[in-house]
Amino acid sequence: MKKIVMTLAFALALTGVNAQTESNGGFNKWSIEFAGGLTKPQRPFTAGYSTATPSPWVGDLGVRYMFNNKFGLKADFGYNSFTAKNNSLDFDSKYYRVDLQAVANLGRIMNFETWTNTFGLLGHAGFGYAQLRSDNFKGADEMGNFIAGVTGQIRLSNRVALTGDFSTILNASQDRTFDGASVEGNRGFSGLLFNGTIGLNVYLGKNTKHADWTVTSNDIIDTSALENKIADLEAQIKKIPAQKEVVIEKQVSNPQPTDNDLIKRMINDKYYSVYFDFNKTTPIENSTAAIDVVLNYLRKNPSASLDLVGYADQVGKADYNERLSNTRANNVKTIFEQAGIASSRLNVIANGADTSIKKDSDEARRLARRVTFIVK
Q: Which domains does the chain have, with CATH numbers?
């Protein structure tokens, strides 16, 4: 019995962990970011002055440190050039800024790992110091600023990611217009400009992956649920009396449950299930332990038949989810057939979306994407 408990605990631990999981702390935290692109100063402007929409150009250089795989800080330096378009009075202004920003890895917070390992999303916001210089006035207009934006990412390798960023900057106490020709004297957040850039993130460190692309075990495993399942199983096993030797001549009217009976009950109670990634029909690698248990049972019990019940989560249309659940169950059936189990012993049931699982819970949706078994 103890062997069965250990086997079940191992299988549950495997099926509960997504194949993409990395160990906590085993990731790089530093990165260098540089980008360039287009800009558009919105206000303030003197009448008769304007820039192209958008206008070149803007440059940005930053250094980022992630405390974990969700949150971090970055310091960055930015440079904007503002020049007149054809029908504007001539001017040439430069805008310099230094900012300290908080960074949120929105891709991990929103569980992008359930559908992609290639695309990411960062959010950033913070405050800084800026200067505006122009050929229309001497010296520099000094101001504070607030910056906020989003950065899309495409992972090219474990060391480099292509980025596309859109940021909004608000200037406080901007005394000069962007063209530099007028004195505005505004003390609030009167200045407004937009930046759009394309660049690269270069990841530094000795580990394989950066925090941007790491999913830790804490993000996925519900350890309390796993412990409760194992404790429940142990309690069930303790209720089974120890088997005693029986004299051949004595008939037993109420035989005690056997190991075989227990395995069957655990299979039918969904202790062994096969799980899938979002919108995928191939079982995750860590579901092989559950498949092995059911396969061994079928081999030892050639008269037994099996229902394979497919499910999807509630994301998407009902007819699509029904087809998806059917394909998942058929793919698991194929695995059993290739392992030597006759097709006549295997029956596929497509149950579509599992409505008993909370739709708004990412953890619950992971549990919904599965194939369960009923031994007959």
A: 2-17+221-241+256-375 (3.30.1330.60), 27-213 (2.40.160.20)
